Amino acid sequence: MKNKIILASSSPRRKELFDKYGIDYTVDFVETEEVLDESLTLFKRLENIALQKAKPLQIKYPNNIIISADTMVTFQDEMLGKPKDREDAKRMLNMLSNNKQVVITAVCVIKDQQITTFTDATTVTFKELSNQEIEDYLDTNEWQGKAGAYAIQGIASKFVEKIDGDLENVIGMPMYKVIKYLEA
């Protein structure tokens, strides 16, 4: 590929996914305040946040491909972002226990000054979690900084009963779709 790829993300999980596929990339990102536009649909709101993350790098890297993403766990139309503290994480895990949730990742790709955004959604079903399982998980601190208060690729994988869709989307980037787009 003639254009260098810039991953506009501080997420170690997204870096791991890019490494897994042998993608040659550079990480650079600008901390942005994530503002959800309530007038948009949920998918468009998340695409807008992904765009907010990519846009500042467009000027710095006009001849490169910029890729950013934003992942959100949703449960019965409630958005479960990163928990504020342990109690908030506990509340989220109790909600997700024995329930289905939808994990949505919005991606923004800026290539040749053309902006493309898209989303992918994966349904994850958790088994019933005991209070002890939740407390033990919270003690690991793995939940910190994770949408929905868990990392599916980590210890929390034992909570999962079923996944309908792309696991990598839940981790933070629908790589199949990203690679397909880059190859087009």
From TrEMBL:
Q: Is Hydrolase found in the keyword set?
A: yes
Q: What is this enzyme's class at the first EC digit?
A: hydrolase
The protein's required cofactors: a divalent metal cation
Gene3D superfamilies reported in the protein's UniProt record: 3.90.950.10
Q: What is its EC number?
A: 3.6.1.9
Q: Where in the cell is it found?
A: Cytoplasm
Residue numbers for the site described as Important for substrate specificity? 13, 71, 153
What do the Gene Ontology cellular component annotations say?
Answer: cytoplasm
Q: Name one GO biological process term.
A: nucleotide metabolic process
Q: Name one Pfam family in it.
A: Maf
Give me the reactions it catalyses.
UTP + H2O = UMP + diphosphate + H(+); dTTP + H2O = dTMP + diphosphate + H(+)
Sorted keywords for this record are:
Cytoplasm, Hydrolase, Nucleotide metabolism
Record: active site: 70
The molecular function GO annotations come to: nucleoside triphosphate diphosphatase activity
What this chain does, per the entry, is described as:
Nucleoside triphosphate pyrophosphatase that hydrolyzes dTTP and UTP. May have a dual role in cell division arrest and in preventing the incorporation of modified nucleotides into cellular nucleic acids.
Q: Which family, according to the similarity comment? A: Belongs to the Maf family. YhdE subfamily.
Protein's recorded name: dTTP/UTP pyrophosphatase
Q: Which organism is it from?
A: Faecalibacillus faecis
